[in-house]
Design brief:
The chain is an alpha/beta fold. The chain folds into two domains: 172 residues, D-Maltodextrin-Binding Protein, domain 2 (3-Layer(aba) Sandwich), CATH 3.40.190; 159 residues, Periplasmic binding protein-like II (D-Maltodextrin-Binding Protein, domain 2). It has twelve helices and twelve strands.
């Protein structure tokens, strides 16, 4: 016998499907190219016409705002855009809205419900497992020492705002952990004379001449085989697929102090004013299922629903170090966006080549 709650949930989904079939074709935006095949599979499953389009974080924000202002909404769903801008600006201004399916909401962590976090994108400290038997780094403060000058790589915080926001997340919520890592590395308490431990680390790290590049440059510098002295660095676990396709030797640096990486929230929001609101909700529901998020799971994207998890053959092995990852606190999104320029200025002024 079907319970009342289960019946209501089934009815909600059936109602969305029926209503969506009366709506016009629409587009969904995401930072990953996997959105194309996801939209195709969704369209085939439900008999709808949904097109997936890969658009970077800032591009999605621009499209959402311009389409909203023009009253001509083409993109119904935005996935994994600039989380701070979405939360601090677009949600409050009514440009987008967050919706969580009734049948899935109880299974999500409370922190992933408002706004809805569909997946988290892990960015991890990584090394070359061919050149090193174990990770050569145990503490982020080592990355400020002369030994690692011009030997560390990451994406540019000036072009990748999530990295500047990561600095603010550390300062806002984990500065004591950064200070503790300093003491563990140098054997004396951190004394910044009024400066936070995070700010001191960002300055010293930037001044140690890290290699700045896009994700492909970073992955190759760390993981390409045959290097005598490969780079150490930070990158998304999605690049670990290069281990199979290109023979790279990327490996996660576990037990780093204070964290082995961080989890960036991939928000799923619906554009206000879309002519296909039920299609958008149905697509959000689809993304929250094993089938709908499969293409991203294999790249190490972590579904918010713990019932799904990561596949056994996910290349990076990040599932084994989730307890070592910094969890993003979306409650401080306004602080993240307000402080973003300050952190970028600190990085720009401290960076040496």
């Amino acid at each position: 016998m079907i319970s009342g709650a289960a019946f209501a949930q089934t009815s909600e989904l059936d109602g969305l499907i029926e209503a969506a079939r009366a709506e016009p074709p629409t587009t969904v935006y995401a930072v990953t190219g996997k959105i194309v095949e996801t939209a195709e599979a969704f369209s085939l499953k439900y008999g709808l016409q949904v097109t997936g389009k890969k658009v970077n974080e800032s591009g999605q924000i621009d499209l959402l705002i311009r389409e909203h202002q023009a009253g001509n909404v083409t993109g119904s769903v935005s996935l994994a855009s600039d989380a701070s801008v979405i939360i601090a600006d677009l949600l409050s201004q009514g440009v987008v809205e967050s919706w969580v399916p009734q049948d899935i909401a109880p299974h999500l962590p409370e922190s992933a419900r408002d706004p809805l976090v569909v997946v988290s994108d892990p960015h991890v400290w990584a090394y070359n497992s061919e050149a090193y038997e174990a990770c050569p780094i145990t503490n982020i403060w080592q990355l400020t020492d002369a030994e690692w000058s011009r030997r560390v790589t990451l994406m540019d915080p000036l072009d990748k705002p999530a990295y500047a926001d990561w600095f603010n997340q550390l300062a806002e919520h984990h500065d004591a952990a950064v200070a503790a890592a300093y003491e563990a590395n140098y054997g004396k308490p951190f004394d910044g004379a009024g400066e936070s431990a995070t700010q001191a680390w960002v300055k010293a790290f930037a001044a140690n001449s890290p290699l700045i590049g896009d994700s492909s440059v970073v992955a190759e510098a760390i993981g390409a085989p045959g290097q005598e002295q490969p780079f150490f660095g930070m990158l998304s676990t999605a690049k670990f697929r290069d281990n199979e396709s290109k023979g790279f030797k990327l490996a996660i640096c576990t037990e780093m102090q204070p964290f082995s990486g961080w989890l960036y929230p991939g928000l799923g929001v619906i554009a206000t004013g879309t002519p296909a609101p039920n299609t958008a909700k149905l697509f959000i529901h689809y993304l929250l299922t094993d089938e709908g998020i499969e293409a991203q799971r294999i790249d190490g994207k972590v579904p918010s629903d713990p019932r799904i998890g990561l596949p056994d053959d996910e290349p990076s092995g990040v599932g084994d170090v989730m307890d070592q990852m910094m969890v993003w606190n979306t409650a401080s999104a306004t602080s993240d966006i307000d402080a973003r320029q300050d952190w970028q200025d600190i990085w720009r002024m401290s960076l040496t080549r």
